[in-house]
Amino acid sequence: MLIAADTYKAISKFLLEQHTTLVAVSKTKPNEAVKELYDLGQRDFGENYVQELVDKHASLPLDIRWHFIGHLQSNKVKYIAPFVHLIHGVDSLKLLQEINKQAIKNNRVIDCLLQVYIAQEETKFGMDEKELAEAIDAASTLSNINIKGLMGMASFSSDTQVLKNEFNHLQSLYKKYQLTNSFSILSMGMSSDYTIAIDAGSNLVRIGSLLFGARDYSK
Ligand SMILES: *Cc1c(COP(=O)(O)O)cnc(C)c1O
User: Fold this and answer.
1) Which of 48, 121, 172, 201 has the most other CB atoms within 10 Å of its CB?
2) Cα–Cα distance between 21 and 33 in angstroms, integer?
């Protein structure tokens, strides 16, 4: 076994009760590990790197819903546009326009989440509130994208109160736009903070290391 099957079963049961979707984050992990989780019933998987996502899509079952959760460069949208299920990290209008263009080429509508900057760390990506408002405005004129909601990453911190505050902040923005824009997805929470995120209103969590073990970037 390459995966933590018992942990997966416990987490999926908990998330089902919470009406929360699980995206299993398989970045850097081999196809065999993805297949093991697939065989237990998991269908939503998340990847951060375009080439890795393209390769995995080509070699794994076709009914997997592939989520792109990393930082997406405009010039790479074309590689994932034919099949991607949901793009989480949309953080600029330019990127949104490129996704729309590639969606038109592929004759499909691509679902997107706008990434909001909620952490204290400079290294994290995302829009501020002004950029968010502008992107939501502009998106209404783009024919082939559908903004389904918001995504955010909290600070890398063990201070529960800091995490709560950041998630609550994202939830308040989500609520602000939810009704007028038919939002249905609030993507926040990872292995270390997903229960806090759910308490703050998350309905989609992105969990990697709890299911697949720690990642080894040295290989
Ligand atoms: C890697 C990653 C995750 C999963 O992180 P874990 O701590 O392994 O659960 C979730 N979201 C994003 C955006 C990621 O890059």
Assistant:
1) 48
2) 20
